[in-house]
Amino acid sequence: MGLFRPARTVTGPTGTWELYVSKTALPAWKEGQGDFGSSLAVGGFAGAGEGFLIGAALSLIGVIWTNLLVPLGRFLFFLPVSFIRGKRSRAIRIEALNPFPNREVLLWTTTVDAKERVLDEIADGLAQGKIVHPIGAVYSGVE
User: Fold this and answer.
1) Number of other CB atoms surrounding residue 83 within 10 Å
2) Same structural domain, 67 and 100
3) In this structure, is residue 98 part of a structural domain?
4) Domain count across the chain
5) Which of 11, 1, 37 is CA-nearest to residue 129?
6) Are residues 97 and 132 in the same domain?
7) SS3 of residue 99 by DSSP
8) Do residues 96 and 135 both lie within one domain?
9) What range defines the domain where residue 138 resides?
10) In sequence order, which residues have a C-beta less than 8 Å from that of residue 113 and are 6 or more positions away?
11) Judgement on whether residues 134 and 108 belong to the same structural domain of the protein
């Protein structure tokens, strides 16, 4: 079992489910709240000269900054914290992913000791088309 490979793959009536087991909850990707469309009004409408080009360039830089660079920096900053928390924790996350036709992710949390038994019960339930609630695990629902 590799780091980014599913622990199990199950085919059931609702599709093919990939079961991933991890101790780490990755930080969420949160985009900024900037509104850079209004900066295009610096030079008026298209063809108004340099003002429009400067406004468009500043708007593009703002969009890249808020939607890509700031969230990436935040993600990379909190990533080591997530790994450290995962190493110290005895909790195991089991995520069931059904990528087609609509992406659906189900989440259970269990302990290190009950991991294999809970994983077996989840795999059997998804093969039958059911969402199970194994003893020793907490079902958190759709992620």
Assistant:
1) 13
2) no
3) yes
4) 2
5) 11
6) yes
7) coil
8) yes
9) 8-23+90-142
10) none
11) yes
34 assigned to some structural domain = no
Residues 137, 97: Cα–Cα separation, whole Å = 18
The candidate with the shortest Cα–Cα distance to 91, out of 14, 3, 25, is 25
Does residue 101 have a cis bond before it (omega within 30 degrees)? Answer: yes
Locate 134 and state its tokens: 């194994």
Dig out the tokens for 24 from the structure. Answer: 């780490």
Which distant-in-sequence residues (6+ apart) come within 8 Å of 39 by Cβ?
Answer: 55, 58, 59, 62
**Both 105 and 130 in a single domain?**
yes
**Residues in the chain, overall count:** 143
- 61-85 pLDDT tens trace: 888 888 888 888 888 888 888 777 7
This prediction's pTM = 0.63
- The 10s digit of each residue's pLDDT in 23-64 is 877 666 677 665 555 444 444 445 556 677 788 888 888 888
Q: Tell whether 30 is covered by a domain.
A: no
For Cα atoms 123, 127, 130, give the angle at the middle one, nearest 5 degrees.
90
49's CB contacts (< 8 A; 6+ apart) are 43
- Is the distance from CB of 52 to CB of 43 less than 8 angstroms? yes
Cα separation, 11 vs 76, in Å, equals: 35
